[in-house]
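Teaching assistant's notes for section 4

Start the section by putting this record on the projector. Ask students to predict, before seeing the second block, whether beta-fructofuranosidase will look compact or extended. Collect guesses on the board.
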Amino acid sequence: MFDLPGSWVWDFWFADDGDRYHLFFLYASRALRDPDARHYRASIGHAVSTDLVEWTQVSDALVRSDAPSFDDLATWTGSVVRHPDGTWFLFYTGSSLAPDGKNVQRIGYATSHDLENWTKSGGPVLEASGPWYETLESGAWHDEAFRDPWVFPDPDGDGWHMLITARAAHGPADGRGVIGHAWSPDLRSWELREPLSMPSDDGFGQLEVAQVEVVDGRPVLLFSCLDEHATESRKGHAGGTWAVSAESVLGPYDVASAYPLTDESLYVGRLLQRRSDGQWLLFAFRNVGEDGSFVGGVTDPMPVAWEGDRLVVQRG
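Reveal the predicted structure now:
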């Protein structure tokens, strides 16, 4: 498990350079005392490992920029990919406050040649806009959701795709969460496209930290959402991380068919394929303890496998 004694650790993502695994994670000082305050103090830390169990913390990857900037409040969740020319791209969420105090999220990136020294590109490359995506003007939510970029190459070699935590401009407020979508020819310029899922009366208010992978030949989408941010029909299912089987990595994703992969004690489930044997593993952060309080820290790897039509965590 990876944790820090002086900080809360929560959302995270991986990169594999062929020799070491790299863990990028959000963290904030426990001196804040209130774990809910961590979101507006988040920086992106970095740790490395050769076995996915023992981790060594190294220099931080990114911190917020000076105001005024799209990331002058905090740097939030993202993903890392490598361009064919060898450049690493770290896509991340920039958080800032609108004049009315509500949170606005946009997506930017930084580049590196060694996964340790990162240079921000400047301003955001994507933000929420109509006609497909809800913005603050709707007044339906406490923020303008447009975060958690998950970037991967097109399976047919046609550029790159990004999955985004977003909300549709229509539908029930608690079922309006969708998988936003953007495309790029080069990782630098991005074209916003329509969502890869639809809002639903049997859905979720937000589909956080989406990831899509082909696990043992079968595409599967992961996202996270708690009871309090889901439709009434989802309440009581105690899902933390959810899974959706798909026809391809580009969906379409039938969010109404989502099933829980973990309960609410674990959140932000991430899949990673172990290099040594090809085993797919699930990681998550510890969300709440038995007393209902926030815990934090990234779990050790948990093997997953298909049982019928569902991906499940294999218990030892």
